[in-house]
User: Fold Double-stranded RNA degrading enzyme from Plautia stali.
Amino acid sequence: MIALLLVSLAASLLPSEARVVSRKDPVGGACILDLNTDLPKKNEPLFLQRTPSGSLDLVLPEMEGKRGVIALREGENILISCPGKKNHIAATNTEYSGASCKAGKTLSIGGSDYSSTDLDCSSRASSTTRPTQKKCAGGKGIIVELGFDVDNSWIPMIESCHDVEKSNTFYSVHTVHGAIMGGKVYRTTARPLFSRGDNIFFKGFNPETAYAQKNQKEVLTRELGAANANKYFLSKKTFFLARGHLAPDADFLFSAHQFLTYFYVNVAPQWQSINAGHWLKVEDNTRKIAKSLGADLQVVTGTQGVLTLPSTRGEKEIRLQDSRLPVPEHFWKVLRNTQDDSCIAFVSTNNPFLTSAPKTICKDICAENRWPKLQDDLSKGYVYCCRYEDLKRAVPEMPNLTCKSLLKGEL
Assistant:
């Protein structure tokens, strides 16, 4: 009995279309590896298995009670990989190795036995960005895949729609695996630095420098005047622009998968008070409903518009790099239950300086669909719910989704 759950991300499908099927029979096997106690703590490798066609798939865990586990029969094989330049499994000095279950937490590689906790990579498993020729956002952007390159197999996990010329990401698409979300790895090491990715992105400037608070202050001073800049940039009150994840790290199961989210094409400038405020609650509620339903959710998260702030010369659009890297006016997120095509959309303002409730870009339907109202503190973001179809009319750059009914929340 195969005890591994595999995710196949065919090139013709969005990554979010992958399915995880929960086993109804009890978890069993000679080797039961707990994700939070039995895997390497420093540099977790990738866990994969070959398909009948010879390509590689990521192995996803299954639940045993409240813990996530990788369960293997005696002699069952799994592939362990440490992708990246000069990266390797520290114990074997190889980039990838086949391992078979011996017993307990002992895996056999090339005739030698190793504890599962000792199979660290020499450095973090490397992910990468892969620009494609596929157009998105009505031709304004291209699809960029974020994934892993292992033994001539490309394994995408996130698709982002990015405008290369304007250094602007319209949206990112990923999957939240609700049935096994409760067993995910909780980060044991520090967050990685953000990466530029392929050299076609952010040409002519360094996005790290553009996001630096020093540059933010200079941009606001130049566009709004010194007095207004001092009013809007207050780092001690979290009034500064963070690198707001579109596909957030906490939605992914393994450390290596979580770290894959740290590419600049998967973030947009978001005020920190909102990033750590009501938008964080939207992300938390996404995982909660996926877990409650035990379903795979297709999640699309994006941006809309360009934020304007008042200056001595009227309203001014805010961008962090000349005419590029715009600060969005709104962030939005669509959840689609892949089991029944029920959907809900969330929209958040990206302006912590509002003094009254803003005009919505689509009708607010939170209350009648049992989603919490996150509107009590405008500095944390004004969040409302919409039908996918209504939001799509306001944000035509959104991808086409199949939505047949409304996804209800759990107040």
